[in-house]
Amino acid sequence: MHTEINVPDLPESVSSGRLMTWHVGPGDTIRQHQVLIELETDKIILEIAAPASGKLLELLASDGATVTSGQCIARMAVEEDTAETAPVALPITATSEPPAATGTIAEASGAPSGHLAAPISPAVRRLLNEHQLEASAIVGSGREGRLTRQDVLDYLEKKAAAPQPVTSQYQPAPEPAARTASPDLGQQSAPRTQRRQTMSPLRSRIAERMLEAQHHTATLTTFNEVNLQRIADIRNEHKQLFEQKHGVKLGYMSFIVKAVVAALQQFPILNASIDGEDMIFHDFYDIGIAVSTERGLVVPILRDADQLNFADIEAAVVNFSQKARQGKLSMDDLSGGTFTITNGGIYGSMLSTPILNPPQSAILGMHAIKDRPVVENGEIVIRPIIYLALSYDHRIIDGRDAVSFLFTIKELLENPARLLLQI
Length: 423
Known about the structure:
The structure is a single chain. This protein has 423 residues and is of the alpha+beta class. Helix content is 26%, strand content 24%. It has nine helices and 20 strands. It has helices at residues 122-130, 149-161, 201-216, 229-246, 253-266, 310-325, 331-334, 399-414, 417-421; strands at 2-6, 16-19, 29-30, 35-40, 45-49, 54-59, 66-68, 72-78, 88-91, 219-227, 272-275, 278-281, 287-289, 291-293, 296-298, 301-302, 339-343, 362-366, 370-376, 379-393. Strands 10, 13, 16, 17, 18, 19 and 20 form a seven-stranded mixed sheet that branches. The radius of gyration is 27 Å and the shape is globular.
C-alpha cells in the first residue's frame, strides 16, 4: 500500500513553513514515528515523522522549499500493519518531549549501522554539525537515551578542559617565503568574499512585522528614569528566603510586570488595540515578554498576569527563557498578547525606542540598571537607576495617557509597597 506524507495542519495564524533538511532519501527504509524532516514556521519548528514503517518512494519537495498546510511532500510504501490514519507531526516546541520513536535508521542520528537510536532534535543536530561531532560519541541523558543540547555542551566543555598533547620539541622556524610583488600595491591583498543566505521564516516575519509597525502606526516614544533602590533593598533582604520557599530567584521582572499591570488597570487604553474603525479594549492582561534566540526575537505570553504572584511571574519568565533557548516554545506560548515588555538592558543597552508589536498599541522597553548619582533631600547619593521607554500608537493613545502611564510605573517601582498593598 502506498501513502502520502503531508505537511501537518497548521494553525490559522501560520500560513506556510519552510522545509529544512531531509534526513532520508528515496529508497530508504523508514520506521514509524521516525523524524524525516523539520518544518520551520515563523513561530515554531515542527518535526514531521513517518506515519508508518515502510520504504520512502519519492520526495515531492526539496530542502528549503516553502510548503503549506496539508501539502504532499513525499510518498512511501507502507507496511500495512503499521499504517496510521494521519501523518505524524512532532512539535519540538511542545512542553513535553515528543513520543520516543520505535526506532530510527542509523543515518538519522549518526549512530553506527544497525543501531536504533533515539531521535535528535534540530537544535541538537545543528550544534553537532557546527562542531563536527558524531552523536554516537556522546552519551545522552534524556529519556530512553535521547541526546540533549546540554549533553553536547557538557561534552564540548570536557573536551576543551582536557590537556592538549605536546606536539614536538623545538623546531627551527621555516624559511620566510619569497614575497610576490604586486604590480599595484607591492603585496598581495586578502581575498574579499561575501555570502548569501535566505532569511528564515521567523526572520522574514520579524522584518514584515517591523515594517508593518512603522508603516501602519503613528509611533511615539516617551522616557523616564526610575530609582530602584527600594526594590534592591527588598531583594537583598528577602532573596534567600524567597528562593528557598519558591525555588526561583527574586528578580526585577516580577516587580516590572506587577507595576505594568497596575498601570494598565488605571489606563486601559494602553491595553487596547485598533481593529478597522473600532477600538478593542481587553479586560485581561496577557503580557508578552520578548526573548532573543538564535533564530530571532520571540515573544512568549504571560497570560492573566494580574492573577499571578511574584513567584509565579519569576518562574514563568525563567521557563520562557529556557524553552526559547532549547527551541521548545509552543504555538500557544506565542499566540495573543495585549502588551509587551522588552529588555535590551541584558545586552548593555542604555536607551532605545522599542518598536510596537502589532496589533498591540504599546510596548515598554527596559534598559541596563546602573549606579548613578542622584539628589535626595538635598544630598548627592548613589542609586541603581534604570531608564524606561514607552513606545505607543498615537492614533489611539494620547500623549497625556502615555506619559501618565509611564509615570505611574515609575511611582510604583520607586514605592514597591504600593504594589503589595495594591494602592
